[in-house]
Specification:
The protein is an all-alpha fold and about 350 residues long. It contains 16 helices and no strands. Helix 5 packs parallel to helix 8 (about 145-170).
Length: about 350
């Protein structure tokens, strides 16, 4: 009687370890808590005067270094290897830089009855930033989609977003974006594009160092983003712009963003099916085509909006947290419905998950 139960015991262990590994994908992580804490710190202790000048200078250096790391970390060869999935990548890019901006422009009709002009500017800006890389890959993997395509789609979006996002902002935001001009575009090129290209050029020599010290450099990235947030929200506090926002306005903004996310998830899910993509590719398109990058958007906003960056990044910060929460639920549902979840296919995912359960159960 004991033998028939032995083959099922490892499967039970795998199911248990799969539940244990899920908390690593929980939507509320330390970085989100750090963002909330940074906003609170800026509200209590905003910088002003000479300290603000020093903070602005440090932010400029941090943003340039951040985009240098982006360029040094991003494998151009890996992105180019995914050209054979050109239909998938064009679909994701169309969602990110065409459909999202179109929905953002359509939301202009909500001003001033539903959204104030500054909040709408931030909402439109979030529609212009590139897609995420890490979280799109993570959710695609969890949902058992095409992970290689997710890596390439995120890489393409990041590469193109360095140029496309500032150009779209100049065309669509106009004077509400802080006064775009030839000088501001030169500043964007020097602070964002030049460090990125320098990182790409030096990647062959420093790529190994970055890989070996990935954990430390990740802290540097997040520290740079937190510094950008602190400088932006400090400027907002000193200028008293937070008096323009009431709890009711924030609730309305959350509602508008919930509708925006629901529309994009619906379009990417059913649109990719209508286009004839297989299941794994549909999962990739759903997650990569409906998400926006907080890590790329915040530094860009500090350059594009200057002193008005605090209100401009607020919709992006809220949308980022919302998309993580919703996509975490969707990824688990996709995984539960995956063909690999059938009993006869159960041994296959065991090989993929063996390394993690050993470290968790130990």
């Amino acid at each position: 009687m004991h033998r028939p139960h032995r083959p099922h015991h490892p499967l039970r262990t795998i199911r248990t370890t799969r539940k244990i590994t899920l908390p690593s994908w929980l939507p509320l992580d330390g970085f989100i808590l750090g963002l909330v804490g940074t906003v609170a710190l800026a509200a209590l202790l905003p910088v002003s005067g000479r300290a603000a000048t020093v903070t602005d200078g440090a932010t400029t250096v941090a943003v340039a270094f951040l985009f240098f790391l982006y360029g040094a970390r991003l494998s151009t060869r890996e992105a180019l290897d995914g050209v054979r999935h050109w239909r998938l990548h064009l679909t994701v890019l169309a969602c990110t830089f065409v459909i999202f901006p179109a929905l953002g422009l359509a939301a202009r009709g909500l001003v001033p009855y539903v959204l104030t002009q500054p909040l709408y500017t931030g909402l439109l800006f979030l529609c212009l930033v590139p897609s995420t890389v890490q979280s799109s890959i993570a959710f695609t993997s969890l949902a058992r989609g095409n992970v290689a395509a997710a890596i390439c789609a995120g890489s393409f979006s990041s590469l193109i977003g360095i140029v496309v996002t500032p150009v779209l902002a100049a065309l669509l935001l106009g004077s509400s974006g802080g006064g775009f001009s030839a000088d501001s575009m030169v500043e964007i090129a020097l602070q964002l594009l030049a460090p990125f290209l320098a990182g790409q050029f030096l990647r062959r020599w420093i790529g190994g160092f970055i890989t070996r010290h990935r954990a430390v450099l990740r802290l540097v990235d997040r520290g740079s983003v937190l510094l950008v947030v602190y400088a932006a929200f400090s400027a907002g506090m000193t200028r008293g712009i937070w008096h323009q926002i009431t709890p009711a306005r924030l609730a309305v903004l959350l509602g508008v963003e919930a509708v925006l996310l629901a529309l994009m998830l619906t379009l990417t899910t059913y649109g990719s099916r209508k286009l004839g993509f297989p299941r794994e590719d549909r999962i990739t398109i759903t997650f990569a085509g409906s998400k926006k990058s907080l890590a790329a958007g915040l530094p860009m906003a500090s350059v594009l909006f200057g002193a008005q960056a605090s209100l401009a990044v607020l919709p992006l910060m809220l949308f980022h947290q919302m998309q993580l929460m919703v996509c975490a639920v969707l990824a688990r549902r996709f995984a539960a419905r995956a063909p690999e979840a059938a009993p006869e296919a159960a041994p296959e995912p065991v090989r993929e998950e063996i390394p993690q359960p050993q470290s968790v159960t130990r």
